[in-house]
Amino acid sequence: MKKLLLTTILLGVIFYSCNSGSSWQSYSKDKAIEQKVDSVLALMTLDEKIAQTTQFTSNGEIITGPASKSDVAKYLREGTIGSVFNTVTVKNNKTIQDAAMQNSRLKIPVLIGFDVIHGFSTIFPMPLAEACSWDLELMRKTARIAAEEASSVGIHWTFAPMVDIARDARWGRVMEGSGEDACLGSLIAKARIKGFQGDDWQNLKENNTILACAKHFVAYGAAEAGRDYNVADISERTLYETYLPPFKAAKDAGVATYMAAFNEIAGIPCTGNKFLLTDLLHHDWQFGGFVVSDHTAVKELIAHGVAKGEKESVALAINSGIDMDMADGLYIGNLKKAVEDGLVSEKTIDNSVRRILEMKFLLGLFDDPYKYLDEEREKSTLMKPEFLEIAKEAVRKSVVLLKNDNSYFPIDKNKAQTVALIGPMIKNRNSLNGEWAGRGRRNESVSLFDGLVEKYKDSEVKFVYAAGCDLTTDSKAGFAQALSVARQADIVLVAMGEDFNLSGEAASRTDIKLPGVQQELLKEIKKYKKIGLVLFNGRPLDLSWEAANVDAIIEAWYPGTMAGHGVADIIAGDCNPSAKLAISFPRNIGQVPIYYNHKNTGRPVDPANPKADYRSFYLDADNSPLYPFGYGLSYTSFTISNIKLDKNSLSKGNKITITANISNIGNFDGEEIAQLYIRDITASVTRPVKELKGFKKVSLKQGETKQITFVISDKDLAFYDVNMKYITEPGSFKLWVAASAADETNEADFTLK
Ligand code: BGC
C-alpha cells in the first residue's frame, strides 16, 4: 500500500509541477523534494488540506493547555489530521500512525510533536540553568540526547528551543529560556537547534533527529509586569535589538519550524501578525519551514478582540502566516467556510500544506511512516547510562556558586564533622526536574540527600537530618526538630527553593522571595550555626536577606534527573563550580525588569554619590542587581590582566584582536568564563551601557596563566539607526574583558573610523 501511494505521488509530480506557479519557497530548496510535495498536494481535496493544517493534542497522556475539542478522537481515528502532540510512547504513537495508514484516503503520515524542553526521559537542568554553563557544546549534546530519546518513542518534532529573552523574574517561563542576553541567547539557540536537528536538513532523514521549533515568536518574555500571556508593549528597536536576534540565529541554524507567541505587540497579537509571520520570516529571512500557533492561540484572537468569531480568527491567522493550528480545532472547523466566503484563498492553504508536507518528506516519513516506531529501540535508548553521565556533567556545569564566605564550600570529606541537613529540598525528588520535564519520572530524580549520602559514604562526615518546613505552607511544626538537629551539628547545610509548579507556564509570581516559612527557618537556624544554602528554583529569587545573612549560597536551579549526584560533586569539591548567571538577580521585586545592558539615561547615577538628587535611582535600594549577569564564583580565584588591543582604531572590513591574561591564583584547578563587553560611547541613537560580544571558557590549573584572544570587526559594532537601518557609525568605543557584567577592571578604548 505504501508503495502504491508513492507511485501515485511520483506520477502526480509530472502533472502538478507544470501548473504550480506557487510563490512557495521550500525549506530545503531541493527541487526533487519540492516536486514530491506538489505531487501530494495535487491529490488532495480542500478538506484533506485543511486537516493537514490541524494539530490536536492526543487528549491522552500529557496535558499542556486547556482541553481540546471533544471530537478529537474521531479525527484521530480518521487519520487525516496533520499532526498530533503529547503522545509519548511507541505504542500510542503507532496507534496514531496506523490510523493514517489504514483509515485515511491518502495515507499521509502524521507528524508527532512534543515539548522536549530539557530532556525527554533523562532530564537535564532546566534551560536557564544550562545557559549558566555558557557551554555551547554541552547544550548541543543535551539537545542531541533529548532528540535520541524522543525520536525513539516516535516523536518527530519538539517545541523547543524556547529562545525568548527574559528580564523579569516574575514571569514563570524565565526557567525555559537562556536568560536576559541576546548574544548569549542566540549562540545557545543555535547550539540547541543543531543538537535536535543535526547540522543541516539532510540530517533530518535520520531516525534520531527531530524538527526543532523556535518559540515563542516573538517578545513573549516582555509580558507586561511579568504576568504570563500579557501584552508586550515594546518599541521596534527593542524588538529588533533584544527579542528578535535569537529567532534570527535560529533561522541561521536551520530551524525547521517556529511557534507564534500568545502575546500581542503594540496592539497586534503575534498569531495574527502578518508582518512578523510572513514578511519578516518568509520574505526577509527567507525561512521555508512552517509556523505553528501556540496552544489554542487561533481561537484566542477572539478574546484579544481582533476577530469577531471563529471564521474571522482562522482567516486572520492563516492569512498572517500560521500554517498549523494547535489544539483548538478552529482551522478544521472553519477554514472551508472562510474559503467559501472569500476570506482565505485556497492558494494560501496550499502553501501552508506544502510547508508541512515538506517536513514530512524531509523526515523520511513518506518512505516509512513507522521509521521512528520501534519498541526495542525505545527500550534500549531511554535513560542510557551514558546519557545519565552527561546529565550529571550538565548539573555540575550549571550550578552557580553565589556566595562562599570563609570557604564554607566545599565540605571536606576528610574532616570529621557532623553536618546537619535541613530543609524541604534535602529529600525532595518531586520538584528537581522543574517544569516541562518531558516524560521524566519525578520520583526517579536523585535527591540531594541520596547524592550526599553516596558521595560521603566512606568519609569522616556524619549527617543528621530534619526537613524543618515544607516548600509552601506556613506551618512551623517542624522548626523545633530542625533546630535541635542543627544544634547537634558542626555546620548546617540547608536546601530550600520553590515547588516546581511555581515556575513554568502560567506561573507568574509577584513575590519572588523563598515561599512559605523557609526564610523564617533560616533566621532561626542562623542564631546557632553557620549556614550553607543550596537553592532549587526556577527563577532569580529575591535573596537579599539570604545574601546578607547566610555564609554560602549555591544556586542549583532545577537540575533534573541527576540533581543529587551533580550537586553533591560540587558540595564535596570533586567538581569546582564554573557556571555564571545568564540572568541578573534583583535585590528585590521592585527592581524588575532588570538587565545589565540597560541605557544610561540623561541622569545616570553618579557612582561617587549614588543618592545625589534628581538622578535615576531608587530611594530605598541601589540600582545594581544583587548578583549581576555573568557572575558566579569558583572555589579558586581568577584574575584577568594585561588587556591589549593590536590596534586602537578600526576601519570598515577590518578587525581588532584583543588579548588578555587569565590567571588561576587560588588553590583549586578551575574554569573561568571571561566575557567581552563593548560600549558605544556616542551614536546617533542611544546605546546600552555595555553589550556582550563574546566569551571564552578557560580551564586553568592552580597557578596557571593563559592568554585569551577575542577578535571583533566593525560588524560587531552595528546597530539600528533612527530609520531602523542596520549600520555602523564612526566613533569611540570602550571594551572590557570581564569576569561579569559588573566587572570593569580591565578596560580599553578604541575608535571606529
Ligand atoms: C505553550 C507552548 C507549548 C504548547 C504545547 C503552550 O501552552 O505556550 O510553549 O509548546 O503549549 O504544549
UniProtKB/TrEMBL annotation:
Protein biosynthesis keyword on record: no
> Which family, according to UniProt?
Belongs to the glycosyl hydrolase 3 family.
Residues covered by the Fibronectin type III-like domain: 672-741
Q: Which UniProt keywords apply?
A: Glycosidase, Hydrolase, Signal
Listed InterPro entries: Cellulose_Degrad_GH3 (IPR051915), Fn3-like (IPR026891), GH (IPR017853), Glyco_hydro_3_C (IPR002772), Glyco_hydro_3_C_sf (IPR036881), Glyco_hydro_3_N (IPR001764), Glyco_hydro_3_N_sf (IPR036962), Ig-like_fold (IPR013783)
Q: What is its EC number?
A: 3.2.1.21
> Has UniProt tagged this entry with the keyword Phosphoprotein?
no
Recorded hits in Pfam families, A to Z, give: Fn3-like (PF14310), Glyco_hydro_3 (PF00933), Glyco_hydro_3_C (PF01915)
Q: Name one GO biological process term.
A: glucan catabolic process
Recorded GO molecular functions are: beta-glucosidase activity
Name of the protein in question: beta-glucosidase
Reaction(s) catalyzed by this protein? Answer: Hydrolysis of terminal, non-reducing beta-D-glucosyl residues with release of beta-D-glucose
- SMART domains, per this entry? Fn3_like
